[in-house]
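Chain A, query sequence.
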Amino acid sequence: MVLALWAVAYAAGVAVALLTPLGAAAVCTGVALVAVGGALVRRSPVLAVAALCVAAGIARTRAAWPDDAPARAGPVAITGRIVRGPDLDEARETSRVRLDLQQVDGLAAGGTVALSFRGAVPDIGPGDVIAVQAVLRSPEGLANPGLPDARLLAAARQVDYMAGAQAAEVKVVARGNSLAPRRIAWRLRQALEGAIARGVANPAAALLRTLVLGARSGVAPEVEEGFRAAGATHVLSVSGLHLAAVAAIVFGLLRAAAAAVPAVALRVAPARLAAGLALPAVGMYTLLTGEAVATERAALMAALALGAVLVGRRFSIAAALGGASLWLLMRSPFLLLDVSFQLSFASVAALALFAGALAPASPSPDDGRARRVGVWIGRMGAASIAAGLVTAPMVAHHFGEVTPAAPLGNLILVPLVEMLVLPLGLGGAVLGAIQGYLGAAPLWLAEMAARVALGVAELFRRCAPVLLVRSPDASETATLVAGCGLFLAGLGRMGNRRRSWWAGAAVCVTMASGSLGMREWLRRTSDQVRVTFLDVGQGDAAVVEGPRGFVALIDGGGSYDGSFDPGARVIEPYLRRRGIPSLDLVVLSHPHPDHLNGLLRVISRFEVKTLWTSGDDGRNPVYRQFIELARQRGVAMPTPHPLFRDGLAMVPVAPWVDDRIAAPPDTGVNDASLVVHVSFGERAVLFSGDIEEDGEAELLGRARLGVPVAAEIIKVPHHGSRTSSSAELLAAVRPRLAVISLGRGNRFGFPRPEVLARYAGGGVRVLRTDQVGAVTVFLGPAPGDATCVRGCR
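Chain A, predicted structure.
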């Protein structure tokens, strides 16, 4: 337990450094060091080391804090050695490698580069030194209120730079050592993938590649939905459970083989021999499957367990869990923010603390087979309940959903996958890679088991509910996790303190529920209007929160190639963190992908009362799909008209045909954008869509007829293109603040310098989401200045 205490203390230090400014973190470090002295005076070395771990965690985290400055201004020649990859993403038709940077433009350089490229995968692998021309950029990612900082998540993965290139431009400078462990694992992975492809048909083959090798890109969305409804998405990655199963199977087979040979068993204890031989197998499987965080955690714990067998010591799961977490956090403290890290350690801790107390007593030698099967099912159910209940608040925090069928889903799918699909698939792939006919039988059995798993997942997808919930914040999540743990402690065999455990659980749940309720009450009684221009990359999306809980979403962002869904990655998480379960109004300015595509997720996952569009389909089939989905969901789609709610006015002002909002014939999609004027009190925001010269001319004509267009804040038309933001428009709107929603380093070159010059010449302050992240402004009796996630520089 001592090592576990030190690990918790170090994690607490990391959390302090993450949640507090630099000055406050320094003060906390000083307090921790004073605590070290106090503990030593009282002759408590364990507590002294724990306090020292807190200080070390703070210091390590602040020292590793990533720099947010852009890395390079233009394309450079980079040379680096491949550490991992290439990993193929079939859906996006891209590949990724991880490089240890060696040179930039011929000069020595250091750091790690996440390089993605399009096109056919070149013949490269771990250890190869490659050269390519690319733009190096710091991994700033997107920045939105309440959502994880992309820079820190990249730092958790130890990525210093990101770059993109065409596969044809990659040149091999030197080949890697063919006997290096990562190189061997990469070659073995290729051979196993080939064996599965030859011996198994889709969709079972895609599932096997995912379960056995961690190649998740080929799994259909419907399959993922099924496993999510069953609360078993962890099965779709090479999780710690997979590695633990592989380690146990390899260890058991080796021990049985050693015991079957008397000449070996008489000289070496079979268990020790098996442990020594299983250790490299655990390391190889970790490399083979991509070295995910959960897999590394399990590998470290398995190594400690096997090491305990080697030296004849008793294995302590608390010490193993503490040692694994200490190692990973000391290497990369920002892993504390990683969802996989959190869920992996929380589930294992729950199993260690509560599963045994919940499970039925062990069967006696005289018990029959039915009793033994019942005990086994009971233990599986206890493990599923313990892990599922403790991690449920964390899943709600990160994903905004709860799966009530998770205990049953895990009880069915986990044994099926871990005891049949995984060992048969891995064994069959290994044998098939050696000789095709050797792996035919086990791969056929693995395919049958995989089809059963797919059928079970489909059944859960159709029948099991996935409850979409408000995401608790960090403190509420921690309180709920503690409450669930106390409830499980009372539910299990914990002596005569059951009532005390349950009373503590009730207090925790009451505190978290009260906090959630208070935040909801404050939102619904607010007398201000909060407008947040979300950072969705190259696209538009803004949330208008009005008085008494009114909420409108204007555009939803999206990528042209479908590789990024801001609806799932940005808009839904933001709305759930804000406690918004439904939308009174969704506005689509025009049906281009960078405004439309993210709305599909929103329409399918939220209750939406009203949808406004200009009626222009833009000859985009996705628009028709979107409208059909809205009809199926019962969304009202009236002709846009002025809307007034408790002092908030949302007035559609263009385009205009025959005394109503509609797209004029022979007008471009951008110029037919639905323009909306939002006002509250003395302040207003003009959402201008992507209007260009013709659209601006029509808007100016509407202004001369008395339609409101003047606004203190303008959403800059068309992301700052040279064909928008004319001097006449700025004179009519008279803004003080302009917000440009766009992607960093976008291929269009937005915003154009001449457009920025026009705004600067008019004394208009310009904020760009690619530089400052999401921008929030308040309209109301006591308006505040704009706030930006990365500072309104």
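Residues 369-399 form the longest helix (31 residues). The longest strand covers residues 75-89.
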